[in-house]
Amino acid sequence: MFRYAIVRTPCRKITEGITSAPELGIPDYDKALRQHEEYIAALRTCGLAVTVLPADEDFPDSCFVEDTSVLTGSCAIITNPGAPSRKGETESVIGEIRKFYSDDKIAFIKDPGTLEGGDVMMVGSHFYVGRSARTNAEGIRQFIGILESFGMTGSEVALNKVLHIKTGINYLENNNMLVSGEFTDKPDFSAYIRHSIPEGESYAANCLWINGTVIVPKGYPQTERLVKSLGYKVITVDTSEFRKIDGGLSCLSLRF
Ligand code: CIR
């Protein structure tokens, strides 16, 4: 169960966010703000107390607050983003995190280690960590060391194509995993019931389980049907503007 979420309002510079898909166009700032409000409302409907941090114009990608830390039941791990333009984003969330975790429960990923929260998928007290262009071997080594010091475990998953691990695989609890592309047959996840995202809807692999409800991006009807068929209550939220800069539902919040 999650009780809290932290989000950050998109800034005007969201139009300059990093993207691998320029053909999708530039995000519309006003529309992004409206979609972000819809997202916050969905988190509240799932029972979370949501802290909304103010927009930070110094960092175009700063609404993707998930990448700045990993908040577990036992500790908070502040990341060290691999994207140079995102390095400073961690500074401005620490103040909020200190309201929930005492200093002895806050740890940091340090240079030369890099790690982004989008590369961490939690399954109970085990954390799968994607080794990506953003998260390196040293970052993963530090991360797993911190987890172990708090009685949790982690394992590395090699990524080939996706930005982050949760771009392509997400855990919906109850042993259910939504998988797309390279995750369809990765042996790391053979113990789970893997549900393949229908052809053409791979963006919707990034669904978000919160306290029994699954938030699904709007506009992916086959994925919505699939998730409903598994017995979850579904809320859809339009994330079209965030998709233009490679962002999905999970990227937009920290949940704990
Ligand atoms: C980036 O490239 O860093 C952003 N434009 C998108 C970050 C998405 N975050 C996530 O998947 N956790």
What secondary-structure arrangement, pairings included, does this model have?
Blueprint: E1 4-8, H1 29-45, E2 49-53, E3 69-71, E4 76-78, H2 91-97, E5 106-108, E6 120-123, E7 126-131, H3 137-149, E8 153-158, H4 165-168, E9 169-171, E10 176-179, E11 193-196, E12 208-210, E13 213-217, H5 221-229, E14 233-237, H6 240-243, E15 254-255
Citrulline binds at residues 17-18, 61, 64, 66-67, 83, 86, 117-118, 163-164, 166-167, 245-248, 251.
Please provide a written account of the structure.
The chain has 6 helices and 15 strands. It starts with a strand and ends with a strand. It has a single domain, classed as L-arginine/glycine Amidinotransferase, Chain A. β3 and β4 (76-78) form a beta hairpin. The relative contact order is 0.18. The longest helix has 17 residues, at 29-45. The strands form 5 sheets. Strands 2-1-15 form a 3-stranded mixed beta sheet, with helices on one face. It has helices at residues 29-45, 91-97, 137-149, 165-168, 221-229, 240-243; strands at 4-8, 49-53, 69-71, 76-78, 106-108, 120-123, 126-131, 153-158, 169-171, 176-179, 193-196, 208-210, 213-217, 233-237, 254-255. The mean pLDDT is 98. It is globular. With 256 residues, the protein is α/β, with parallel strands linked by helices. The structure holds citrulline (CIR). The site of citrulline (CIR) has 19 residues, from α4.
